[in-house]
Amino acid sequence: MDRADLIERLTPIIATYAQDKDAVASINETTDFIKDLRINSANLVDVILDVEEEFDIEIDNLSMERMLNVTAAIEIIEDKLKTK
Amino acid sequence: MNKEEILAHLPYSKPFLFVDELLHIDENGSSGTFNFDKDLDFYKGHFKDHPVTPGVILTETMAQIGLVCLGIYLTGSAEGGVPGHVMLTSTAIDFMKPVFPGEKVKVIAEKVYFRFKKLNCTVQMLNEQHEVVCKGTIAGMVTNKMNA
Known about the structure:
The complex is a heterodimer. Chain A is an all-alpha fold. Chain A is 64% helix and 0% strand. Chain B is α+β, with helices and mostly antiparallel strands. In chain B, strand 4 and strand 5 (118-126) form a beta hairpin. Chain B has a 6-stranded antiparallel beta sheet, covered by helices on one side. Chain B is globular. The interface between A and B is small, with 10 and 10 residues.
């Protein structure tokens, strides 16, 4: 799965919780979940739980703590898919 | 943690404590009761001459008995854990029946998940006729610090 496909699958999950809808429309690898999309910490947990379900992976506490932008999310998802 | 220890850790006092008794608590959920004293101050204004318990107060009651007591229990009972503070982050509640001054209600909460410090519960409130007066889901972040 290439990065464009991953972002395509990530976008609807993120769109559910993002406050800034313009930032969702222009989502890219540099998009920050908190600064750009204005997702709060409680909804960040929901994003991660939805990512686990969408990709059938389990995200540990350490990964969760650094999953704050699209690039980190992609890296973590790719990593977890590899070790599945 | 036992029920008395949990009640002692609640950060509320009158007139904003909405837990009288914890009936049961374990890692999957909690239940408890509260009696709405007819002299509670908000009845004077909600509504003029027609006192009914406000929906926000019913929501708060479900949050205190369900989310907050359970959050304290889950963090305080963990190995090396310290009882946490619970910051309300979302509610989705349906209201079915009014609760009048003097009524005693029972709240039953079930944990949906507790992950990455977020506790999500389904809650329902029953009146003394065992009718569901309101129900829904409530979530919060369990933190070590107040207002963190």
